[in-house]
Specification:
- Strand 1 and strand 2 (19-29) form a beta hairpin.
- By secondary structure, the chain is an alpha/beta fold.
- Helix 3 (102-112) crosses helix 4 (117-130).
- The N and C termini lie far apart (50 Å).
- It has 12 helices and 10 strands.
């Protein structure tokens, strides 16, 4: 659905203040996928994200969204349809709320794209139900809600435009642990309904738990990509680039140092429990004569 081909981007190109942010980016986001983009602050993630819906245009190369090709001299009129296809949830999206009621705020986006007020209101109700915001809150001011509720309103506003791709830029920033889990489960349910999701994050556990494709960005370059299971096997590589691994993977690495052998490092808690349970069952069947038993490895 979205394809980057040799995309370069330079801020203030052609001036003494020119600063290059992206270098020869090749990337493909497939229809129906859950793609994660990870990297340090300043790595180019946000700049990359802004290319997804034409907020910025490549200095060189092209970004293709369905049959729309965005290049440096693309006109705003040609890019506008991309804004409807790709919805972006920025960090702290609740800061963009402005209407007097929750329902009006969510309905604003569809009306801005020419949908009638009545149809936009019905769409807003549908999306507010989808994000789990109780109906008794719909006529209240969004500024009277909790932080987590405000974020749900902002996300409903993006979903109300029925984008084909949902881009999430650090969507759980500032939320408490319970609200963070609820928010990630919400995005997973949206993805399960067939929505393409792009997640920009620094939380490796979220990548492991939800994504099926991951790109690592460093200083404007893609330095690694693949499915999370393969990418997170490269523990030394990731640490050399000061990138973390999921907690389950880190725990498995510590177990390896104590003599526990893994055919493949687990990347989620569920996988870790399953692998250790399988080892324990195998040990019970074989007796305790092995030189590096699970029990011995854990106790050393």
């Amino acid at each position: 659905m979205i394809k980057f081909e040799k995309v370069n981007f330079t801020y203030q190109a052609g001036t003494p203040f020119a600063s290059r942010a992206l270098f020869d980016i090749d990337m493909e986001i497939k229809n129906g996928s859950y793609t994660a983009v990870i990297g340090h602050t300043g790595s180019g993630k946000s700049t990359l994200m802004q290319h997804l819906n034409g907020l910025v245009k490549p200095t060189e190369g092209s970004v293709t969204v369905d049959d729309i090709v965005i290049i440096n001299d693309s006109k705003a009129k040609a890019i506008k349809p991309v804004r409807k296809k790709v919805g972006v949830v920025f960090q702290f999206p609740e800061a963009q709320l402005f209407e007097e009621t929750v329902l009006k705020d969510v309905a604003f986006g569809p009306q801005n794209f020419g949908i009638s007020e009545a149809d936009a209101t019905e769409t807003a109700k549908e999306k507010l139900k989808l994000v789990g915001l109780p109906e008794e809150l719909w006529e209240r001011s969004p500024f009277e809600l909790s932080g987590g509720q405000m974020r749900r309103v902002a996300i409903a506003g993006i979903l109300a435009m029925n984008p084909e791709v949902l881009v999430l830029d650090e969507p759980t920033a500032g939320l408490d642990p319970k609200a963070r889990i609820e928010m990630m489960e919400l995005f997973e349910s949206i993805h399960a309904s067939g929505q393409t999701v792009v997640l920009v994050t620094h939380l490796m556990d979220d990548v492991a738990n939800y994504a099926d494709q991951v790109y690592l960005i460093e200083k404007g370059h893609v330095i690694s990509s693949g499915n999370p299971h393969d990418v997170f096997q490269k523990v030394d590589f990731l640490k050399a680039h000061e990138l973390g691994v999921p907690k389950a993977t880190e725990f498995a690495v510590q177990l390896q140092k104590r003599g526990i052998e893994f055919k493949k490092l687990p990347i989620t808690r569920a996988e870790l429990v399953m692998v250790l349970s399988s080892m324990k069952n195998q040990e019970n069947e074989n007796g305790n004569g092995q030189s590096t038993s699970l029990r011995g490895g854990l106790l050393r």
